[in-house]
Design goal:
The structure is a homodimer.
Chain A: H1 8-19, H2 26-34, H3 42-55, E1 58-61, E2 69-72, E3 78-83, E4 89-93, E5 110-121
Parallel strand pairs in A: 3-5
Antiparallel strand pairs in A: 1-2, 3-4
The structure holds a DNA duplex.
Chain lengths: 130, 130
DNA sequence: TTTAATGCAAACAATTTGCAGTAGA
DNA sequence: TCTACTGCAAATTGTTTGCATTAAA
């Protein structure tokens, strides 16, 4: 069975994730971590993120062609609204959404996480009728 | 204004997308297209896919670290159940799901698409208590 | 004819991996 | 001690781009 070790760099990555409210990508997390521990490598950040995602503590948000962005899983569940134009990601409170039922799922499928993303165009990017 | 041309390779990509029921990635689409038009390049496939996605006819499905997968947008809206273990993607009929309301979205955000993914473990991959 | 679309190859970007050294337990 | 974790760099992968050419309209 997997034995997990508590390390300085791992703690730093976790702290950055918990602190940041900007859905950082691996590079941003790496940069933030380096402010405290300058020697931490990108590879370690990736490995740590993988472990956290596998453990279910962190959730990923992916956009075609762009870097994967990570989100610490807090008490409040929220989803995202992604602007196709500027790429900005807004949080959408899940409380207002109806609970997503595990209906019609393939037999035996066990849901561990639900990703709900609203793709669209945000206010500032709304195409103008020039 | 953008002027769009109807080309042989574009038609081939579209046909593959419409035909395939397996959420193919760019490489798979490329391979399928080449069976008919051996000279089509991967670059063209990517450019065509970008155009189709921008046009809203095709929807993308992204998974961290893996290739983006594309889905032709049919009459029936459906979502996906993604197995974290084997990466397989199952379709989930959206009819059974409650309409996702555009609540709590940031002001002025215009939703063009909703991505709903159930992450989890499929029947065949259910971890056994060895 | 006009110019968007193509093929190719090189450029990029994001993520993964091998390996020898470091440091938790 | 024992071995998971780390840093580094090289290797992969997925995707984008520049440019001369081809072919829709």
């Amino acid at each position: 069975m997997a034995m997990v070790r508590q390390t300085r760099q791992r703690a730093a990555v976790i702290e950055v994730l918990q602190t940041s409210r900007e859905h950082p990508d691996a590079a941003a997390i790496h940069a933030a971590v380096r402010e405290r521990l300058p020697s931490v490598s990108l590879g370690t950040v990736y490995r740590t993120l993988d472990a956290l995602v596998a453990g279910g503590v962190v959730v990923t948000l992916e956009r075609a062609g762009l870097a994967t962005r990570y989100d610490w899983r807090e008490g409040t569940v929220h989803h995202h609204a992604v602007c196709r134009a500027c790429g900005r990601i807004f949080d959408v409170d899940a409380a207002a959404l109806p609970a997503v039922p595990s209906v019609n799922l393939p037999g035996g499928f066990r849901v561990t996480d639900v990703h709900l993303e609203f793709m669209g165009v945000c206010d500032g990017c709304e195409p103008r009728t020039t």
